[in-house]
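[Automated response] Your request has been received and processed.

Submitted sequence:
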Amino acid sequence: MRRILLISTALFAVCLAGAVGAFAQSYDFEIVSFHAQWRHGTLYAIGEIKNTGALAGSPKVEVIARDKDGLLIDTVDFWPNGISNLNPGVSCGIKYPVTEDPRAERLYIRIVDVSNFN
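Generated structure:
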């Protein structure tokens, strides 16, 4: 059985430019769960992401695979919900192929951007 270390940056917030004080609205997303799964020779990132903010948006995540010594194996970035916005309070699943390299032993995930697709 392969052991994989999973590390996530769980929270992400972006305030709208020009928003001040109590009227500030922000995109807030949280990685609720995250794990890896080998399927047919491919390592997948599996999990859930939730919109914890006040605005609808679509988060972009980056997943990095590293070997036992910490060397970079592969990196992917993607929108778990595609070009559909997540409304406040709504979650979506994460399932994405990361690498086929068997040296991958550690996965890191973080939210890198948020877009609003109208």
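Summary generated for your ticket: The domain at 5-15+28-115 is CATH 2.60.40.3230 (Immunoglobulin-like). The chain is about 0% helix and 60% strand.
If you did not submit this request, please reply to this message.
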